[in-house]
Amino acid sequence: MPDAVASSERGVPKGWSVQPLGEVTSWTSGGTPSKSNSEFWDGDIPWISAKSLKTFYLCDSKDHVSEAAIADGARLVDVSDILLLVRGMTLHNDVPVGIAMRPMTFNQDVKCLRGKEGVNTRYVAYWLVGNKWRLLAAVDQASHGTGRLRTEVLQAMDVLLPPPDEQEAIAAILGALDDKIEQNRRTARALERLARAIFRAWFVDFEPVKAKAAGATAFPSMPQPVFDALPTRFVDSDIGPVPEGWEVKAIGDVVTAKGGGTPSTKNPDYWEGGEYCWATPKDMSRLSHPVLLDTERRITDAGVNSISSGILPVGTVLLSSRAPVGYLAIAGVPTAINQGFIAMLCDGPLTSAYVFNWAYTSMQTIKAHASGTTFAEISKKNFRPLPVIVPPSDMIALYEEVTSPLFELLTACVTENEQLAEMRDYLLPRLLDGRVRVRDAKGLASVTS
Protein backbone atom coordinates (compact mmCIF):
# COMPACT_ATOMS: atom_id res chain seq x y z
CA MET A 1 0.00 0.00 0.00
CA PRO A 2 2.00 3.04 -1.23
CA ASP A 3 0.14 5.54 1.00
CA ALA A 4 0.72 3.57 4.19
CA VAL A 5 3.91 5.35 5.26
CA ALA A 6 5.17 5.05 8.82
CA SER A 7 4.16 7.98 11.00
CA SER A 8 7.77 8.77 11.83
CA GLU A 9 8.36 9.71 8.20
CA ARG A 10 5.50 12.21 8.24
CA GLY A 11 5.68 13.48 11.81
CA VAL A 12 2.99 13.15 14.43
CA PRO A 13 0.12 15.63 13.99
CA LYS A 14 -0.40 18.03 16.88
CA GLY A 15 -2.56 16.51 19.58
CA TRP A 16 -1.97 12.93 18.36
CA SER A 17 0.08 10.29 20.16
CA VAL A 18 1.98 7.11 19.31
CA GLN A 19 1.29 4.13 21.57
CA PRO A 20 1.83 0.36 21.38
CA LEU A 21 -1.21 -1.56 20.19
CA GLY A 22 -1.08 -3.78 23.25
CA GLU A 23 -1.41 -0.80 25.61
CA VAL A 24 -4.50 0.70 23.99
CA THR A 25 -6.48 -2.52 23.44
CA SER A 26 -7.60 -5.51 25.48
CA TRP A 27 -7.16 -8.98 23.96
CA THR A 28 -9.14 -12.20 24.26
CA SER A 29 -8.28 -15.65 22.91
CA GLY A 30 -10.80 -18.05 21.42
CA GLY A 31 -11.25 -21.79 21.45
CA THR A 32 -13.10 -24.76 20.02
CA PRO A 33 -15.88 -26.37 22.07
CA SER A 34 -15.58 -30.14 22.24
CA LYS A 35 -16.57 -31.64 18.91
CA SER A 36 -17.58 -34.84 20.68
CA ASN A 37 -20.31 -33.04 22.63
CA SER A 38 -23.25 -32.53 20.29
CA GLU A 39 -24.92 -30.20 22.82
CA PHE A 40 -22.28 -27.57 22.03
CA TRP A 41 -22.98 -27.37 18.28
CA ASP A 42 -25.65 -26.43 15.73
CA GLY A 43 -27.03 -23.65 17.89
CA ASP A 44 -27.78 -20.04 16.95
CA ILE A 45 -24.50 -18.38 17.95
CA PRO A 46 -21.95 -17.77 15.15
CA TRP A 47 -18.55 -19.38 15.71
CA ILE A 48 -15.91 -17.55 13.71
CA SER A 49 -12.94 -19.36 12.21
CA ALA A 50 -10.71 -18.54 9.25
CA LYS A 51 -13.31 -19.81 6.78
CA SER A 52 -15.90 -17.34 8.08
CA LEU A 53 -13.61 -14.33 8.50
CA LYS A 54 -14.18 -13.16 4.93
CA THR A 55 -15.88 -9.77 5.28
CA PHE A 56 -15.30 -6.65 7.37
CA TYR A 57 -18.80 -6.81 8.81
CA LEU A 58 -19.29 -10.21 10.45
CA CYS A 59 -22.98 -11.10 10.61
CA ASP A 60 -22.89 -14.90 10.51
CA SER A 61 -20.60 -17.89 10.13
CA LYS A 62 -20.33 -21.34 8.61
CA ASP A 63 -20.53 -23.01 12.01
CA HIS A 64 -22.69 -22.26 15.04
CA VAL A 65 -22.53 -23.16 18.70
CA SER A 66 -25.17 -23.36 21.41
CA GLU A 67 -25.76 -21.58 24.71
CA ALA A 68 -24.34 -24.71 26.35
CA ALA A 69 -20.98 -24.04 24.71
CA ILE A 70 -20.98 -20.49 26.07
CA ALA A 71 -21.87 -21.77 29.54
CA ASP A 72 -18.96 -24.20 29.24
CA GLY A 73 -16.50 -21.38 28.67
CA ALA A 74 -16.61 -20.37 24.99
CA ARG A 75 -15.79 -16.65 24.82
CA LEU A 76 -18.65 -14.43 23.62
CA VAL A 77 -17.67 -11.13 21.98
CA ASP A 78 -19.75 -7.97 22.03
CA VAL A 79 -21.14 -6.10 19.05
CA SER A 80 -18.37 -3.93 17.47
CA ASP A 81 -15.50 -6.02 18.88
CA ILE A 82 -12.66 -6.75 16.45
CA LEU A 83 -11.85 -10.29 15.31
CA LEU A 84 -8.36 -10.74 13.85
CA LEU A 85 -6.97 -13.91 12.27
CA VAL A 86 -3.59 -14.74 13.81
CA ARG A 87 -3.00 -18.29 12.57
CA GLY A 88 -3.69 -20.03 9.24
CA MET A 89 -2.48 -20.44 5.68
CA THR A 90 -4.55 -17.37 4.70
CA LEU A 91 -1.99 -15.19 6.49
CA HIS A 92 0.54 -15.73 3.73
CA ASN A 93 -1.68 -13.61 1.46
CA ASP A 94 -3.99 -11.57 3.68
CA VAL A 95 -4.68 -10.68 7.31
CA PRO A 96 -8.48 -10.79 7.72
CA VAL A 97 -9.99 -8.23 10.07
CA GLY A 98 -13.67 -8.17 10.97
CA ILE A 99 -16.15 -6.31 13.16
CA ALA A 100 -18.71 -8.37 15.08
CA MET A 101 -22.19 -7.15 14.13
CA ARG A 102 -23.87 -9.43 16.68
CA PRO A 103 -22.73 -11.44 19.72
CA MET A 104 -20.58 -14.34 18.54
CA THR A 105 -17.71 -16.56 19.56
CA PHE A 106 -14.49 -17.61 17.82
CA ASN A 107 -11.81 -20.28 17.64
CA GLN A 108 -8.18 -20.39 18.73
CA ASP A 109 -6.86 -19.05 15.40
CA VAL A 110 -8.57 -15.72 16.04
CA LYS A 111 -8.01 -12.94 18.58
CA CYS A 112 -10.64 -10.51 19.85
CA LEU A 113 -9.52 -6.88 20.32
CA ARG A 114 -11.36 -4.07 22.05
CA GLY A 115 -10.28 -0.47 22.58
CA LYS A 116 -9.52 0.55 26.14
CA GLU A 117 -10.88 3.74 27.69
CA GLY A 118 -10.37 6.67 25.34
CA VAL A 119 -9.71 4.40 22.34
CA ASN A 120 -12.41 3.86 19.73
CA THR A 121 -12.58 0.16 18.82
CA ARG A 122 -13.79 0.89 15.29
CA TYR A 123 -10.84 3.25 14.79
CA VAL A 124 -8.49 0.41 15.83
CA ALA A 125 -10.19 -1.86 13.28
CA TYR A 126 -9.53 0.65 10.52
CA TRP A 127 -5.96 1.07 11.73
CA LEU A 128 -5.46 -2.69 11.36
CA VAL A 129 -6.98 -2.64 7.86
CA GLY A 130 -4.86 0.35 6.86
CA ASN A 131 -1.69 -1.30 8.16
CA LYS A 132 -2.11 -4.76 6.67
CA TRP A 133 1.24 -4.31 4.96
CA ARG A 134 2.83 -4.20 8.43
CA LEU A 135 0.82 -7.16 9.64
CA LEU A 136 1.76 -9.22 6.59
CA ALA A 137 5.43 -8.37 7.09
CA ALA A 138 5.17 -9.70 10.65
CA VAL A 139 3.75 -13.10 9.63
CA ASP A 140 6.08 -16.01 10.32
CA GLN A 141 5.59 -19.76 10.00
CA ALA A 142 4.38 -22.24 12.55
CA SER A 143 4.40 -25.99 11.97
CA HIS A 144 3.73 -27.29 8.45
CA GLY A 145 4.15 -23.80 6.99
CA THR A 146 1.06 -22.38 8.68
CA GLY A 147 1.11 -18.58 8.87
CA ARG A 148 1.30 -17.08 12.34
CA LEU A 149 1.08 -13.61 13.87
CA ARG A 150 2.66 -13.63 17.31
CA THR A 151 0.70 -11.75 19.95
CA GLU A 152 3.80 -10.05 21.38
CA VAL A 153 4.79 -8.79 17.93
CA LEU A 154 1.34 -7.39 17.24
CA GLN A 155 1.04 -5.76 20.63
CA ALA A 156 4.41 -4.03 20.19
CA MET A 157 3.31 -2.27 16.99
CA ASP A 158 2.96 1.50 17.35
CA VAL A 159 -0.47 2.99 16.69
CA LEU A 160 -0.92 6.63 15.70
CA LEU A 161 -3.83 7.84 17.82
CA PRO A 162 -5.80 11.08 17.34
CA PRO A 163 -7.79 12.50 20.24
CA PRO A 164 -10.89 10.44 21.10
CA ASP A 165 -13.36 12.75 19.35
CA GLU A 166 -11.32 12.63 16.13
CA GLN A 167 -11.00 8.83 16.39
CA GLU A 168 -14.78 8.69 16.58
CA ALA A 169 -15.23 11.04 13.63
CA ILE A 170 -12.74 9.11 11.46
CA ALA A 171 -14.47 5.83 12.30
CA ALA A 172 -17.85 7.42 11.53
CA ILE A 173 -16.78 8.62 8.07
CA LEU A 174 -15.18 5.32 7.05
CA GLY A 175 -18.04 3.44 8.71
CA ALA A 176 -20.63 5.35 6.68
CA LEU A 177 -18.96 4.09 3.50
CA ASP A 178 -18.81 0.53 4.81
CA ASP A 179 -22.43 0.76 5.98
CA LYS A 180 -23.52 1.64 2.45
CA ILE A 181 -21.38 -1.15 1.02
CA GLU A 182 -23.01 -3.62 3.40
CA GLN A 183 -26.48 -2.32 2.55
CA ASN A 184 -25.75 -2.82 -1.15
CA ARG A 185 -24.46 -6.32 -0.46
CA ARG A 186 -27.67 -7.23 1.32
CA THR A 187 -29.77 -5.77 -1.47
CA ALA A 188 -27.79 -7.68 -4.08
CA ARG A 189 -28.11 -10.93 -2.13
CA ALA A 190 -31.87 -10.44 -1.85
CA LEU A 191 -32.17 -9.78 -5.60
CA GLU A 192 -30.10 -12.87 -6.36
CA ARG A 193 -32.25 -15.02 -4.07
CA LEU A 194 -35.44 -13.67 -5.64
CA ALA A 195 -34.33 -14.50 -9.19
CA ARG A 196 -33.28 -17.96 -8.02
CA ALA A 197 -36.58 -18.55 -6.19
CA ILE A 198 -38.61 -17.65 -9.28
CA PHE A 199 -36.49 -19.99 -11.41
CA ARG A 200 -36.97 -22.86 -8.98
CA ALA A 201 -40.72 -22.27 -8.70
CA TRP A 202 -41.30 -22.11 -12.45
CA PHE A 203 -38.69 -24.45 -13.94
CA VAL A 204 -37.76 -26.93 -11.19
CA ASP A 205 -40.87 -27.34 -9.05
CA PHE A 206 -43.25 -26.39 -11.92
CA GLU A 207 -45.59 -24.58 -9.53
CA PRO A 208 -47.60 -22.69 -12.22
CA VAL A 209 -48.24 -25.92 -14.15
CA LYS A 210 -49.19 -27.79 -11.00
CA ALA A 211 -51.53 -24.95 -9.99
CA LYS A 212 -53.28 -25.05 -13.36
CA ALA A 213 -53.54 -28.83 -13.25
CA ALA A 214 -55.19 -28.48 -9.83
CA GLY A 215 -57.83 -26.15 -11.25
CA ALA A 216 -56.33 -22.69 -10.69
CA THR A 217 -57.34 -20.07 -13.24
CA ALA A 218 -54.34 -17.77 -12.68
CA PHE A 219 -50.91 -17.65 -11.06
CA PRO A 220 -49.43 -14.72 -9.11
CA SER A 221 -47.29 -12.34 -11.20
CA MET A 222 -47.81 -14.39 -14.36
CA PRO A 223 -49.60 -12.69 -17.29
CA GLN A 224 -52.87 -14.40 -18.10
CA PRO A 225 -51.99 -15.30 -21.72
CA VAL A 226 -48.83 -17.07 -20.53
CA PHE A 227 -50.71 -18.93 -17.82
CA ASP A 228 -53.46 -19.91 -20.28
CA ALA A 229 -50.84 -21.44 -22.58
CA LEU A 230 -49.44 -23.70 -19.84
CA PRO A 231 -50.15 -27.44 -20.09
CA THR A 232 -52.17 -29.24 -17.44
CA ARG A 233 -50.31 -32.53 -17.44
CA PHE A 234 -46.80 -33.95 -17.15
CA VAL A 235 -44.99 -36.45 -19.34
CA ASP A 236 -42.03 -38.71 -18.57
CA SER A 237 -38.52 -37.73 -19.63
CA ASP A 238 -34.96 -38.84 -19.00
CA ILE A 239 -34.85 -36.56 -15.95
CA GLY A 240 -38.33 -37.34 -14.63
CA PRO A 241 -41.78 -35.82 -15.26
CA VAL A 242 -41.78 -32.48 -17.11
CA PRO A 243 -44.67 -30.34 -18.34
CA GLU A 244 -46.15 -31.59 -21.59
CA GLY A 245 -44.63 -29.81 -24.56
CA TRP A 246 -41.50 -28.73 -22.69
CA GLU A 247 -38.28 -30.18 -24.09
CA VAL A 248 -35.26 -31.74 -22.42
CA LYS A 249 -32.08 -31.06 -24.37
CA ALA A 250 -28.34 -31.28 -23.84
CA ILE A 251 -26.94 -28.00 -22.56
CA GLY A 252 -24.33 -28.13 -25.33
CA ASP A 253 -27.15 -28.01 -27.91
CA VAL A 254 -28.66 -24.77 -26.59
CA VAL A 255 -25.55 -22.79 -25.58
CA THR A 256 -22.09 -22.53 -27.08
CA ALA A 257 -19.64 -23.95 -24.53
CA LYS A 258 -16.09 -22.63 -24.79
CA GLY A 259 -12.84 -23.00 -22.91
CA GLY A 260 -10.00 -20.53 -22.53
CA GLY A 261 -6.25 -20.43 -22.23
CA THR A 262 -3.26 -18.65 -20.74
CA PRO A 263 -1.06 -16.58 -23.05
CA SER A 264 2.63 -17.23 -22.48
CA THR A 265 3.67 -15.37 -19.35
CA LYS A 266 7.16 -15.12 -20.83
CA ASN A 267 5.94 -12.94 -23.69
CA PRO A 268 5.45 -9.34 -22.51
CA ASP A 269 3.55 -8.54 -25.73
CA TYR A 270 0.63 -10.50 -24.30
CA TRP A 271 0.53 -8.69 -20.95
CA GLU A 272 2.24 -5.31 -20.72
CA GLY A 273 -0.27 -2.51 -21.11
CA GLY A 274 -3.12 -4.99 -21.42
CA GLU A 275 -6.62 -3.51 -21.44
CA TYR A 276 -8.81 -6.62 -21.72
CA CYS A 277 -10.04 -8.50 -18.67
CA TRP A 278 -8.62 -12.01 -18.36
CA ALA A 279 -10.42 -14.12 -15.78
CA THR A 280 -9.18 -17.03 -13.70
CA PRO A 281 -11.04 -19.05 -11.05
CA LYS A 282 -9.14 -16.97 -8.49
CA ASP A 283 -11.02 -13.89 -9.73
CA MET A 284 -14.27 -15.78 -9.25
CA SER A 285 -13.34 -16.79 -5.70
CA ARG A 286 -13.26 -13.12 -4.67
CA LEU A 287 -16.77 -12.35 -5.86
CA SER A 288 -19.41 -11.70 -3.25
CA HIS A 289 -22.09 -11.59 -5.96
CA PRO A 290 -22.34 -13.44 -9.29
CA VAL A 291 -21.33 -10.57 -11.57
CA LEU A 292 -17.76 -10.34 -12.90
CA LEU A 293 -16.82 -6.70 -13.50
CA ASP A 294 -13.02 -6.79 -13.27
CA THR A 295 -10.06 -9.15 -13.11
CA GLU A 296 -6.69 -9.14 -11.41
CA ARG A 297 -4.77 -9.34 -14.70
CA ARG A 298 -5.38 -7.90 -18.15
CA ILE A 299 -4.10 -8.88 -21.55
CA THR A 300 -3.34 -7.14 -24.83
CA ASP A 301 -4.77 -7.63 -28.32
CA ALA A 302 -1.96 -10.08 -28.97
CA GLY A 303 -2.89 -11.96 -25.80
CA VAL A 304 -6.54 -12.13 -26.83
CA ASN A 305 -5.59 -13.43 -30.25
CA SER A 306 -3.57 -16.25 -28.67
CA ILE A 307 -6.70 -17.63 -26.93
CA SER A 308 -9.08 -19.58 -29.14
CA SER A 309 -12.19 -18.31 -27.34
CA GLY A 310 -11.07 -14.67 -27.69
CA ILE A 311 -13.12 -12.04 -25.90
CA LEU A 312 -16.43 -13.29 -24.55
CA PRO A 313 -19.37 -10.87 -24.57
CA VAL A 314 -21.29 -9.41 -21.66
CA GLY A 315 -23.87 -11.93 -20.52
CA THR A 316 -21.64 -14.98 -20.93
CA VAL A 317 -22.19 -17.41 -18.05
CA LEU A 318 -18.84 -18.43 -16.54
CA LEU A 319 -18.39 -21.74 -14.69
CA SER A 320 -15.06 -22.69 -13.15
CA SER A 321 -14.34 -26.20 -14.38
CA ARG A 322 -11.47 -26.97 -12.02
CA ALA A 323 -9.64 -25.76 -8.92
CA PRO A 324 -12.45 -25.90 -7.89
CA VAL A 325 -15.47 -26.88 -9.97
CA GLY A 326 -18.42 -24.64 -9.26
CA TYR A 327 -17.62 -20.92 -9.14
CA LEU A 328 -20.38 -19.28 -11.14
CA ALA A 329 -20.92 -15.76 -12.48
CA ILE A 330 -22.27 -13.74 -15.38
CA ALA A 331 -19.74 -11.61 -17.25
CA GLY A 332 -20.63 -7.97 -16.68
CA VAL A 333 -17.80 -6.84 -18.96
CA PRO A 334 -16.23 -8.36 -22.07
CA THR A 335 -13.61 -10.80 -20.85
CA ALA A 336 -11.18 -13.50 -21.89
CA ILE A 337 -10.77 -16.59 -19.72
CA ASN A 338 -8.07 -19.07 -18.83
CA GLN A 339 -8.28 -22.83 -19.14
CA GLY A 340 -10.07 -23.24 -15.81
CA PHE A 341 -13.49 -22.37 -17.23
CA ILE A 342 -16.42 -23.54 -19.23
CA ALA A 343 -17.98 -20.40 -20.71
CA MET A 344 -21.58 -20.59 -21.86
CA LEU A 345 -22.51 -18.17 -24.62
CA CYS A 346 -26.28 -17.80 -24.50
CA ASP A 347 -26.76 -17.57 -28.25
CA GLY A 348 -29.67 -20.01 -28.42
CA PRO A 349 -33.16 -20.11 -26.93
CA LEU A 350 -32.06 -19.63 -23.29
CA THR A 351 -31.11 -16.33 -21.66
CA SER A 352 -28.13 -15.65 -19.42
CA ALA A 353 -30.29 -15.49 -16.27
CA TYR A 354 -31.95 -18.81 -17.16
CA VAL A 355 -28.64 -20.56 -17.88
CA PHE A 356 -27.00 -19.12 -14.75
CA ASN A 357 -29.80 -20.41 -12.52
CA TRP A 358 -29.92 -23.73 -14.35
CA ALA A 359 -26.21 -24.16 -13.57
CA TYR A 360 -26.75 -23.11 -9.95
CA THR A 361 -29.58 -25.58 -9.37
CA SER A 362 -27.73 -28.30 -11.33
CA MET A 363 -24.39 -27.89 -9.56
CA GLN A 364 -24.57 -31.27 -7.85
CA THR A 365 -25.02 -32.95 -11.24
CA ILE A 366 -22.24 -30.86 -12.78
CA LYS A 367 -19.80 -31.81 -10.02
CA ALA A 368 -20.83 -35.46 -10.27
CA HIS A 369 -19.58 -35.48 -13.88
CA ALA A 370 -16.16 -34.13 -12.92
CA SER A 371 -13.19 -36.46 -12.74
CA GLY A 372 -9.49 -36.33 -12.00
CA THR A 373 -6.89 -37.76 -9.64
CA THR A 374 -5.05 -34.61 -8.53
CA PHE A 375 -8.11 -32.34 -8.54
CA ALA A 376 -11.65 -32.61 -9.88
CA GLU A 377 -12.29 -31.18 -13.34
CA ILE A 378 -15.27 -31.30 -15.66
CA SER A 379 -14.38 -31.32 -19.32
CA LYS A 380 -16.48 -29.75 -22.07
CA LYS A 381 -17.00 -33.28 -23.39
CA ASN A 382 -18.65 -34.34 -20.13
CA PHE A 383 -20.43 -31.03 -19.66
CA ARG A 384 -22.17 -30.64 -23.02
CA PRO A 385 -24.51 -33.69 -22.67
CA LEU A 386 -25.94 -32.55 -19.31
CA PRO A 387 -29.72 -32.15 -19.51
CA VAL A 388 -31.52 -28.82 -19.36
CA ILE A 389 -35.25 -28.16 -19.61
CA VAL A 390 -36.19 -25.84 -22.46
CA PRO A 391 -39.63 -24.30 -21.83
CA PRO A 392 -41.71 -22.58 -24.51
CA SER A 393 -40.32 -19.27 -25.71
CA ASP A 394 -43.01 -17.21 -23.98
CA MET A 395 -42.02 -18.66 -20.59
CA ILE A 396 -38.33 -17.93 -21.25
CA ALA A 397 -39.17 -14.39 -22.36
CA LEU A 398 -41.31 -13.83 -19.27
CA TYR A 399 -38.53 -15.01 -16.95
CA GLU A 400 -36.14 -12.63 -18.70
CA GLU A 401 -38.66 -9.78 -18.37
CA VAL A 402 -39.06 -10.46 -14.64
CA THR A 403 -35.40 -11.05 -13.78
CA SER A 404 -33.63 -8.60 -16.08
CA PRO A 405 -34.38 -5.61 -13.80
CA LEU A 406 -33.22 -7.66 -10.81
CA PHE A 407 -29.83 -8.39 -12.40
CA GLU A 408 -29.51 -4.79 -13.59
CA LEU A 409 -30.06 -3.52 -10.05
CA LEU A 410 -27.74 -6.20 -8.64
CA THR A 411 -25.03 -5.10 -11.08
CA ALA A 412 -25.61 -1.47 -10.11
CA CYS A 413 -25.14 -2.40 -6.43
CA VAL A 414 -21.89 -4.22 -7.18
CA THR A 415 -20.62 -1.34 -9.34
CA GLU A 416 -21.45 1.25 -6.68
CA ASN A 417 -19.69 -0.88 -4.08
CA GLU A 418 -16.52 -0.88 -6.13
CA GLN A 419 -16.66 2.92 -6.29
CA LEU A 420 -17.38 3.23 -2.57
CA ALA A 421 -14.54 0.84 -1.72
CA GLU A 422 -12.17 2.85 -3.91
CA MET A 423 -13.17 6.04 -2.07
CA ARG A 424 -12.77 4.36 1.33
CA ASP A 425 -9.38 2.93 0.42
CA TYR A 426 -8.24 6.36 -0.78
CA LEU A 427 -9.34 8.09 2.41
CA LEU A 428 -8.22 5.41 4.85
CA PRO A 429 -4.42 5.98 4.91
CA ARG A 430 -4.85 9.76 4.70
CA LEU A 431 -7.18 9.83 7.68
CA LEU A 432 -4.96 7.48 9.69
CA ASP A 433 -1.79 9.56 9.28
CA GLY A 434 -3.40 13.00 9.51
CA ARG A 435 -2.97 14.17 5.91
CA VAL A 436 -6.73 14.58 5.89
CA ARG A 437 -8.13 15.91 9.15
CA VAL A 438 -11.64 15.65 10.46
CA ARG A 439 -12.80 18.98 11.83
CA ASP A 440 -16.13 17.58 12.91
CA ALA A 441 -18.29 14.58 12.13
CA LYS A 442 -19.92 16.42 9.21
CA GLY A 443 -16.96 17.47 7.12
CA LEU A 444 -13.33 17.15 6.15
CA ALA A 445 -10.60 19.70 5.63
CA SER A 446 -7.28 19.02 3.93
CA VAL A 447 -4.05 19.45 5.89
CA THR A 448 -0.68 19.72 4.22
CA SER A 449 1.63 16.94 5.33
Structural class: alpha+beta
The name of the CATH architecture of the largest domain is Alpha-Beta Complex
Q: pLDDT under 50 segments (min length 5)?
A: 1-9, 441-449
What gap, in angstroms, lies between the N and C termini?
A: 18 Å
For this structure, the CATH topology of the largest domain is Adenine-n6-DNA-methyltransferase TaqI, Chain A, domain 2
User: What count of domains describes the coordinates?
Assistant: 3
SS elements, strand count:
26
Helix content: 25-40%
State mean pLDDT (0 to 100 scale): 93
User: How many strands, what sense, and barrel or not for the largest sheet?
Assistant: 5 strands, mixed
How big a fraction of the residues is strand? 15-25%
Written account of the structure:
This protein has a five-stranded mixed β-sheet with strand order 2-9-6-7-4. A five-stranded mixed β-sheet has the order 16-23-20-21-18. Strands 5-3-8 form a three-stranded mixed β-sheet. The chain folds into three domains: 156 residues, Adenine-n6-DNA-methyltransferase TaqI, Chain A, domain 2 (Alpha-Beta Complex); 120 residues, Bipartite methylase S protein (Helix Hairpins, Orthogonal Bundle); 142 residues, Adenine-n6-DNA-methyltransferase TaqI, Chain A, domain 2 (Alpha-Beta Complex), CATH 3.90.220. It is α+β, with helices and mostly antiparallel strands. The protein is globular, with a radius of gyration of 26 Å. The protein has 16 helices and 26 strands. The longest helix has 41 residues.
